[in-house]
Amino acid sequence: MSHELDLQFRTPPDRRLDIEDHLSMIRRLIEILGAEDALLGESAWYLSGDTKDDSYRDQLFGDQGPTAAALAVLKREQEGKEVVKSFAIWNGQLENEKGASIAYYFDRTDGSASGLRLTLGAKPSTSRLGAWPTVARVLSETVKIWQPLIATIDKRNYSGVFLDRPRAGWMLYLPTILTDQQVPEARALVSVLNEKNKQLGTIVVSVVDGPFSGSDPEHVRVAHAIEVRLVDQDLLPRYADL
């Protein structure tokens, strides 16, 4: 079973990011992940390829940042991509419970938000990053890097109430200050603060007694109730509005 961290973000119009900038942000995330699991550390990641051999060819990071080989491949691959630039990386582990991957897309010209999806394989009924406070901390640190429009952590087998809106799943980040009175169904609310101690938004947590499962009726009931509550208050945006 896998948990996925999914976020969508927009780059300010006055700030043009190049491929090195995006890799720098990904490296910060990987440093956070590596502190929890050595198989997610920066020395573990490779550019995904079309074959198994290709996928072990280019290590993404060295001691000084992106390797010259990986950077050259990424720059070459982005040439001619007019609508959206994208790439994928993985941690070189073939066993599902040890594997991880990141899909990243950016510089969109179709009006859609850019995004990142981190997939973490794990043993059944477990969380790769441990208990919910650690998972929430990783999500919080990720928010500080990208300052996304929305971010979620859930399971692939979880279906939300609204097809046109993000799912609450295990955790949902909104760039809004939320209170217990606004989301009484939440099992925890975590404030995300920037370096100046200003609140960027709130993480809504649906399950605190173990990892979230899309096949657990109680987990699904709580997540659905959170989604309905947020929509009733016009707090859960449509994908089309992101």
From TrEMBL:
Name by which UniProt lists this protein: Immunity protein 52 domain-containing protein
InterPro entries documented for this protein: Imm52
Stretches assigned to the Immunity protein domain: 25-236
Highest taxon above the source species: Bacteria
Lineage: Bacteria, Pseudomonadati, Pseudomonadota, Betaproteobacteria, Burkholderiales
